[in-house]
Structures are given as C-alpha cells and as structure tokens.
Amino acid sequence: MIDVCIPATDMDVLQEERYTHPHPRVQRKLHTLYLVGLGYPRHDVARVVGVSEGTVRNYLHAYAAGGLEALRQFNPHPTSAALDAYTDTIRQAFVEQPPHTVQEAVDRIEKVTGIRRSPTAVRTWLKKTGFGFRKTGPIPAKADPVAQRLFLETQLEPVLAQAQAGTRHVFFMDAAHFVLGAWLGYLWCLTRAFLPTPSGRQRFNVLGALHALTHEIITVTNETSIQ
Predict the structure, then answer these.
(1) Of 6, 16, 185, 207, which is least packed with CB atoms within 10 Å of its CB?
(2) 17-53, pLDDT tens digit by residue?
C-alpha cells in the first residue's frame, strides 16, 4: 500500500479546486485525494466518492509521481466520431460481409480506415449507424436467386395483376404436418413419467391457402394424408 504525505499547501489547493476545477473528473480526483489527506480510510473514501479502491490507489500513485499537476491531467478515451467520415466505406464492407463479433468489427474497421477504437466505442458507433446484432435466418441451400427473380417477374407478377383486375383468384398455399405425441409435457412427480403416445408416423395435417388480395384463409385438416 502506498503511503502519501500531503502537505498543508496542497491540502489548501485541493480544498479549493475539488469544487472549482472546470472538469468534473478532475474534481473527483482532487476530492478523493483531499479525503485521503484528512485521514479517512481508503475503502471509505472509495465508497463516498463512488470509485474502486484500485482507482483511489491509482490517484495516489499519480500524485506521488507528479504532484497535483498529474491529477489535473485528463485524457479522455478517443470517441468513435472519427469513424463518421468513413461511414459509407464501412457500411459497404459490412453489408457485403457482416462481422460476427464486435472485436472482428474493431479489427476490420482498423484495416479499412486505419483508426482503432475500443469495442465499446465501435459497438456504440454501429448502433448509431443502424447496425444491430440480429439473428440470422436460414434459406434453402438450393435456392436460386436468378430463377426466383425470373419466376417473380414472368409468372407471379402477371397473375397478381390479373387478380387485381378481377379476372382471376390467386392463393398462396402451404402444408404443415404435426406429429401426434407427448413431447413437451412436465409433471411434478417423484420419478420420470412415461405417457402412452401415438407412433411417430401418425400426424395431424393442415393445408392452408391465403388469398393474395383479400387475405382470406382457407384450411383443410385431417389425420390421414393431404394429396
């Protein structure tokens, strides 16, 4: 534990500047040292000021090494504002290949811009720019965007236009097959309970059709099969 002797002349300065220094964080440093100089235990000083005992110790080391001037120094953490000039470049890079973690974003931003910021600053900047940590969604591996676009333009959009003109009806259809069985049941019991359940091949089938314009839903259900 470092022992620091604070002379009366410095105590007078601390008494004054802990309230009058223009920066609140420097005020906190000076107030911390002033309380230590009054003889209060350091754990009590940390609790009163609202910092950790390690921070109190760092303030004392700084004072021992450089006096009051060392405590008056304040070097704020660099902000992410410098990244604003590279917004379009970073956005394009991340749209083409989204980063998996904030740390990856930190490294890639530095590679693209030459500017390195902390993960916290980069996370804040990403949120400000519209990025979010979002869950990915799967698409079929065999999906063909070109074929889908061709289907949309040459088949779907023409029949939708006919539906809007009142010359035909268009429905979007899909089917779901629910397995009959006891799967997610919970009971308060002394030992695990086993319940009679149908075979996995027995299913409850639902066929649904959604009208493209009216959004009317038509369903067909059974326990055999849907052809």
Answers:
(1) 185
(2) 999 998 888 999 999 999 999 999 999 999 999 988 8
- The residue to which tokens 């916290």 are assigned: 120
pLDDT at 1 over 80: no
Residue of 189, 221, 227 whose CA lies nearest to 208: 221
What pTM does this model have? 0.42
Distance between CA atoms of 51 and 65, rounded to whole angstroms? 21
Contacts of 90 (CB under 8 A, 6+ apart): 83, 109, 112, 113, 129
Return the CA Rg of the chain: 34
pLDDT, one tens digit per residue, over 71-82 is 888 766 566 678
- Residue listed under structure tokens 């099969």: 225
